[in-house]
Records
---
Amino acid sequence: MENTITKKSAKLNAILKEMDSFIVAFSGGVDSSFLLHRAGKIRKNGVMAVTIKTPYIPEREIEEATEFAGRFGVKHTVLNLTFPETIRNNPLDRCYQCKRTLFSEILKFAGDNAYQYIVDGTNADDTGDYRPGMKALRELGIRSPLLESGLTKQNIRDLAKNEKLEIWDKPAMACLLTRIPYNTEVSEGMLRMIEEAENIMLDAGYPGTRVRIHGDVARIECLPGFFKRIIADPDRKHIISNLKRIGFRYVSLDLEGYRTGSSNPETF
């Protein structure tokens, strides 16, 4: 196992070395953070991190991305984008449309600043899930070094832990649109309610929790190990009162717990 990870890690290094200059599409999640850190070690020059800020990306994630890049001395910029109207109604191909829009902006930035490639944090596990956004990456010529080197999510966490990166056990991230049912018109107020609700859960000690919105109902998906705590007082009362304060009428706990893709179409 160790030997396999070592080979994958060496392949990643080789891929990063072969590119003269590139931009890392940097969300601040585990995958892109590990990729950026490794890129900074392999290539002292010719690497830049670009983070996209949109109304459906939590402010906390932008701040964490900025802090991480600054800590390791990697050049970093944040591009501000308005809400793409093509995904205003949260269509089934939302991820495809979003990736096309966001990475087209990064491509323009790369061209204006003479960067040869754009890379992202897609890993080998992402090919087994419903990921329509990957089609957009292929169409735009975005490279995915972690995927190319065969690194899985667990491989990346293990390597990040070995390199003493604090993000090694950071919960998975996803944009706020994933908390909203498909074919639902998205408003700024809806996004801020979700963001605030998840901040409440995180500050209360429930990392990795999703708060999905269904009209005036908040459906909480937490890790199974949190069930007992979350339904016991005083946490239960604290969560209910605060989520109602920000605009939810009903607060529910999903007994299946957090799982990726719970809002995906059943046909996928």
---
Amino acid sequence: MSRKTLKALFHMGAKEYKTEYDNRYNDADTIHLSVNIGGNAAFICQTPEIYKQIISIERLDKAVDAVANTLPQLAISQFTSKCLIDEILLTNNIEGVHSTRKEIGEILQDLSTRDKRNRFVGLVAKYAALEDNQSMSFKTCQDIRKVYDDIFYEEIKATDPENLPDGEIFRRSGVEVQSATQKVIHKGLAPESKIIDTMNQSLAVLNNDDIDIFIRIAVFHYLFGYIHPFYDGNGRTSRFISSYLLSRQLNPLIGYRLSYTVKEDISKYYKAFDVCNDAHNKAELTPFVEMFLNIVEISLQQLLETLEEKKYKWEYYCQRVGSLPNAEKNDIAHLYELLIQAALFSNIGISREELLNELKLSENTLRSRLRMIPDNLLIENRQKGRKYYLLDLDEADILFDV
């Protein structure tokens, strides 16, 4: 936070506190929102910190694009799937929902035939849609409900039907958000008419082109949590919406990094909600916007560093392919490069089908080429009856050092 919150300044004294609130609320650069938080009109101060964060985000995004554009498309696709799996694991983990990489990976591998009543199928399918660049609309309450239904409805109907939305669009009854120690830390809006009205106001903010898009995404993320429109799945739904919106503005990979960064500093994430929910903060959402933009900034920085590291290793190993057994044969050298790429960028390896497509070989010829890779170098994985391959880079390092 670039300066003390109004919540923190409350104990300065009534006069000083009121003066500071008036100065912030009435500043010429302040953004006023048509949404009330705890009876106060919400607003955002466009602080120097916010301006710096937006500039940094845009610069980092260009740097990410520059590195990504130098990598093979298959490597980016493999890395995208790996990040998608990690993102779903972490968005589940934040809510205390257990899942595994194998479980998510198997769903991702065969989305078209999976039963949507099974755990996480809707969530995986929705995140996978980011990679396909599918267009989604967030203009009405019905749009929000559709996203929720796509992700959770069939799963909740099969496992916990009492948590299904029971109102016209959202929930009918009240709901409380509790801490790990069962302490009530927030009460969602009620009745449903208030949920709908406030959600419509929030969507109007999200679609207001007069406000910078990154500020709008941050504000909507907060407002979704404040409204808490559903009995279950609010956090994962709001993080998905934010991921989608960010993926439309920045390198698409950012859509699979949000929960990773949130999880790294979960206390900061929850504290920003707590500060802005507090009545003494007088509905100033600046602290949340700065926190959220910092998360996006860190996500991009970490993404850039990860891609740069993988690119460096990719080039390092490819330059040394010639010293690997049987690499004097062109198609074997190419096979080695694909296996190295899989080891660096994928979650489980490169599939047999992908190898056939990339190498333009028959099934029998591919089988014979794989036999020319020493057993200690070739790692074979199986998932849902399919074979995946990658190079054991530790074993390759031993050969390079000889």
